[in-house]
Amino acid sequence: MWWRRTTGADGRGALWAVLAWAATRAVLLLALLGVWRYPGDDVRPDVAVIYHGWYEHLLTGSFPVGDVTWQYPPVAAAAFLAPALLPFLSYASAFYLLACAADAVVFALLLRAARAPGGRLDGAWLWIVGVAVLGPIALARYDVMATAVAVAALLAVARYPRVAGVLAGIGAMVKVWPVLVLAGVARGRATRRVWGAAAATVAALGLVFLVFTRGAFAFLTEQRQRGIEIESLGALPFHVARYLGLWSGTSRLHYGSFEFLGPYVHTMSKLVLASTVLAFGWLVWWRLKARAFDQAVLYDAAFTAVLVFITTSRVISPQYLIWLLGLGGVCLAHRRTAQRLPIGLVLVACVFTVLEFPIGFGPVVRSNLPGIAVLLVRNGLLLVASVWACRQLWRGTAPPRIQAAQPRRVERVTA
C-alpha cells in the first residue's frame, strides 16, 4: 500500500512532498478563481454569497440570529471576518487564500511531526492526496481552518499540555468537534491540565462573547427542527424507499443543506442521535477500561472519536472528511499507529465523496440509482472504518489485549 512505501522524513522525500502540495493547491486555487472549471456543481456560492453575507452582518457586532444557515459557535466568526485582512482582494479570493494558508499550516505541522524520532512522511502525503481528491471544496469551506487548530492542539499535548488545552478550547468554540482530539489524553495529571485549560478557555471566550456581542449562542437552539441530511447514513433508507416509490416525503434545501422532510424523518433523527449517544458511551467506556496511554493511542483515539462523530451524525457534508484527513495524517506520522486500515478506507471514501458532491449531486438529490449507489459505498466505507477503528483502539489498550500482546517465551521441544 502507498503508505508503507514511505521511507521517512529524509530531505528528498520532504522536498517532493512540498512540491506535490504546492502543485495540487495551485490547481485547486485556479479552479476557485475561475481559471478552469471543476466538474459538477459550483462550490463557490457558499463563500461568495453566504459567508460574505455573514461577514457584513458580523461587522455590526451581532451574529446572524434568525438565519437558519448560521449554525456555528461564536469564534467561527473569526474565519468569516478574516478576509478583511486582505482588503485589496475580493471577499471570496481573500477567503480562498486564507483557507490555503490554513491548509499550509496543517501540512507544515505534519512535516514537522515526520521529523520526530520514528516519524514518517505518510501523514503529510495523506494530507496532500486527500485534500487534492476532495477538490476545490476543501478551500471553499472554513473546515480546513478548524482542522488546523485541531491538529496543532493534538500535536502539542505531549510537550505543551496547557497550550494544547487552550487550542482545543478555541477549536471547540470554532466548530465543537476539535475538543474531541483530547479523547485519548492519559488519565491523571495530564487530563487535569489539558482539559482544565480547555474548559477555562471555553468559559472565558463564552463570557466575552456573551457580554460584548448579540446572539452569540443562538445557534444552540435554532437547529432543533432539522431533518435528516440527504448525504448521511440515516438518509439511506429514505433514498431506497423513495426510489422504490414506498415513501411520500421529499428532499429540499432546509437549514442550509438538502434534507429529507416527511413521514418517519423525525423518528429517524432520534435514532441517529441515539446512535451518536451510544457511540460516545462506548468511547467513555473505553477510557475507563484502557490501561495504555502513549502518544500513538492519543492520536488514534482522536481520529476514532471524530470518525465516530461524523459517521453517526445527521449531517455528513463532504468537507467533514477534511477533519479526518488532518487527524489521520497525525496518526500516520507516528510509526506505531493502529489506524492504517481505517485511514485508508477514509481516503477511498474521499473519492466517492467527490463523486457524490459536486460531480453527481443531482442524482443524490433526486434519489436516483447512481446517487444511491455512490452514497451507499461512501457511507459504508465510513461505517466499516468506524467499527474497525474502535476495534483497533480497544484491542491495543484494553487489559486482556495488552497481556496477550506481551512477548511469549518460546520453549524448545526436543524429541
TrEMBL record:
Signal peptide: none annotated. InterPro entries: GT87, UCP010361. The chain crosses the membrane at residues 14-36, 88-111, 123-142, 162-182, 194-212, 264-285, 345-365, 371-390. It is found in: Cell membrane. It is a multi-pass membrane protein. Pfam families: GT87. Keywords: Cell membrane, Membrane, Transferase, Transmembrane, Transmembrane helix. Its main location: membrane. Belongs to the glycosyltransferase 87 family. This is Glycosyltransferase 87 family protein. It comes from Streptomyces silvisoli.
